[in-house]
Amino acid sequence: MSLAEDHAPKGLALRRPPPVQRFFGSVWVSIAIYVAVVGLIIYGSFTGAQNMGYNWQWHRVPQYLYSFTDDGFQLGEMFWGLMTTIKLSVTAFFFATLLGLLVAILRLSGLVIGSAVAVGFLEFIRNIPLLVQMFIWYFAIPELVPDDMGRWMKRDMPNPEFVTAVIALGLYTASRVAEQVRAGRIAFDGGGLALPLFPGGGGDGDRKVIKQNRCEGTVGVCRVDCGEVSRA
Predict the structure, then answer these.
(1) 61 — pLDDT class (breaks 50, 70, 90)
(2) Is residue 103 very low, low, confident or very high in pLDDT (cuts 50, 70, 90)?
(3) What is the spatial distance between Cα 220 and Cα 63, in angstroms, rounded to a whole number?
(4) C-alpha to C-alpha distance for 202 and 205, rounded to whole angstroms
(5) How confident is residue 33, by pLDDT bands cut at 50, 70 and 90?
(6) CA–CA separation, 42 vs 37, rounded Å?
């Protein structure tokens, strides 16, 4: 018996969905329903605004995108807002990645103090909404520190709004990064991953002992048997 037949899935075949379910589950019908719903929302918004006598004033939108002045072409406020959003996201991403990796290492280190600090950080940050954290860093923290430092944070610190947003967003995202890194590390230790052995890959090639908690399974082109990987 071949390896494919040995590990072929066994059991009853899945029942075919009824015609009505197949019809509404098709891609084109789903797209048509989506377009119809969006069209109804837009139509209802315009109709409701007209009945209430509201004027959308769409002619004012371009001035927030671009403008022509005596100095020439100028980008509008929406463009600079987009640039600020991208800058904030990239800065907070790097901060969150570094801090998240550090917290994950502390929690996986096995040290009592390190694990306690990591767990305390995760439980505290993850249970406070992001918007509340932004208010805390911008309004509350300057009032809790000494007067000179609080005055510097509110007045003299360069771009305090941007800095506090990076701190709040970075801490909040770091807690997610730490948990994802920890989950991935635990899954790898549990034997959930076995890399196939490619010809010419170096090493012993034909047999490699790995940590595997399953007795038997098939991964890629390799066969996993009780902790050993051999060519299929």
Answers:
(1) confident
(2) very high
(3) 57
(4) 6
(5) very high
(6) 9
Within 8 A by CB and 6+ apart from 67, the residues are 73, 74, 76
Do 157 and 206 share a domain, yes or no?
no
Classify residue 53 as exposed, middle or buried by CB count within 10 Å of its CB (0-12, 13-18, 19+): exposed
Name the pTM for this structure. 0.60
Task: Please identify which residue in the block is written with the tokens 């490619």.
Answer: 198
- Measured between alpha carbons, how far is 154 from 9 in angstroms, rounded to an integer? 64
Supply the range of the domain harboring residue 100.
Answer: 57-189
Output the average pLDDT for the chain: 78
Same domain, 165 and 81: yes
Provide mean pLDDT across the span 100-119.
92
Give the SS3 label for residue 191: coil
Total H helices, total E strands in the chain: 9, 6
106: pLDDT strictly greater than 60: yes
- Cβ atoms < 10 Å from Cβ of 116: 12
How many structural domains does the chain have? 3
Which residue carries 């371009």 as its tokens? Answer: 62
Locate 15 and state its tokens: 């029942």
